[in-house]
TrEMBL record:
CDD domains: SDR_c. Keywords: Oxidoreductase. SUPFAM superfamilies: NAD(P)-binding Rossmann-fold domains. This is Ketoreductase domain-containing protein. Residues 296-325 are annotated as: Disordered. Residues 17-203 form the Ketoreductase domain. It comes from the Eukaryota. GO terms for molecular function: oxidoreductase activity. Residues 308-325 have a biased composition (Polar residues). Pfam families: adh_short. Belongs to the short-chain dehydrogenases/reductases (SDR) family.
Amino acid sequence: MRSIALTNVNLEELKGKTVIVTGVTGGIGGETARTYHNHGSNVVLADLEQMRSFAEAVMASFSEPSRAMFVPVDILDWAQMTSLFRSTKERFGSVNVVVANAGVMESRPVLESNEADENSHLKEPVEAYKLCALLSSTWQKIEPKFRDGSQGSVVLVTSTSGYFGGTGVAAYVSSKHGATGLLRASQGAANKVQIRVNGIAPNFTATRLTENFAKAWYEAGFEHNTLHHGAHVIAQMSVDPSRQGVCCLIAGRILREMEHSRTYLLSEWLGDDLVQFMNNVGGLLAGMGGLPLPKLPALQQEPRRSSRASMNQGSGLRSSGKASM
């Protein structure tokens, strides 16, 4: 068991930094943007155009709204994501931190899903996080942006559902496991360009996507996460130079590191012989510069269409915030 203590992290380093937060309408995203702003950061709120009024209300609550702007973006659209980073640099000069917070949860059981549900729920969160991580790691390679010499920081907002699957919401669990996989798979590329990529995995947090479960949780007397606490942990993880490739599970006052703990337990889980075999395979791949990519013919893509699901704000689709459970 590895507890995380973040109380000594100096958030003063956030002053003057520029932060992009995706998915600002679900509670955690808006509070995260507010936390960065309160510590002196320039903040870019990125979400769908139909979420503009919500984002503008969040910015209006800031003490200095001039240090914030809203950029409408579909996080699945590469051109729009590139435009997001370009607009941010034109306004504030750089991009220092990306918080990939956009997430979804299905509104129907997985066996009742249709094509639109499949495209929106299972593909989108992984692609959204991938775009944020890769763009942040390749956009700027000039002078060091943080005191430890790193060029920038990415925080992926996954969930306890990114490690466990007992909630039964299969699409949400699958997408969050994808985010956890991205956290692990991105470390090699991130290290090469001096980007810190970490994650947080909140347990139950009261947002509009979990409101149907909140009453039962409270009546059971379980401790729950607050938006402020979750946002504060995100901010701390983004500036802590000792954190690279870690994920902090947040369950109220309890903070546990998940990734290094998993590595520590591998021998007990897999056995020494299998761990040694996997390490040997890992060494082979490292010597090859990673797994060679297959040379496949380009697939013909159909034009993207606006689906009923993509516009359904009530089910929390696209980048309209996240639920943590």
